[in-house]
Amino acid sequence: MNIILLGPPGAGKGTQAGRLVETRGMVQLSTGDMLRAARTSGTEMGNRVAAVMDAGQLVTDEIVIGLIEEQLDTRTGHGGFIFDGFPRTLAQADALGELLARKGQALDAVIELEVVDDVLVDRIVGRAAEAAAAGQPVRADDNAESLKVRLLEYYKKTSPLIGYYHAKGALTKVDGLGPMDAVEDEIAAVLDGVRTPARENA
Ligand code: AMP
After folding, report:
1. Is 199 a catalytic residue?
2. N or C: which end of the chain has fewer CB within 10 A?
3. What is the pTM for the complete model shown?
4. What is the pLDDT of residues 29-64, one digit of tens each?
């Protein structure tokens, strides 16, 4: 089973992906994590994307599609992929469809985590404060200025994917506002077929 977790920054995609890895043996493919790893490794690509990421803008489709393609080619023998933070543009969505089709695979569900903006800001500011208090590195883009750009990028470039996947009959909305356990249960219900997009759209 391959799924996409869709939603704005701070919606809980990474947290929920982590839980699916634990409970279902799925593989989390987070382009944000891959890009952060690339920049600390000092590769040319990493250096190139660092400033773009820190400003809160999207890196090019070519780069992230390349990262995903590499992972799809090398990771095997698991309970499916969770695409976390990818796709973020319509071009990326098309590319993902093609990459999966080439492997004889399909996308089984797209879960949109819905959270209002005020809560996103609180969560991200809280995430930065928690990391700082624990002596962990704070993400360079977890500040009010970058966050504003990240939200704009989401609404301009990523939110059209909601309509795109809805039209394909693949989209299910999940309330991302509640406690993490409640969101986890709702996602489980979608994946276990208790809630289906067909029924929702009917
Ligand atoms: P995230 O960890 O998903 O919040 O991503 C952090 C940053 O990495 C984003 O603000 C973008 O600069 C970049 N990024 C991550 N995934 C993508 C993607 N699919 N397309 C373009 N840029 C991305």
Report:
1. no
2. C
3. 0.94
4. 999 999 999 999 999 999 999 999 999 999 999 999
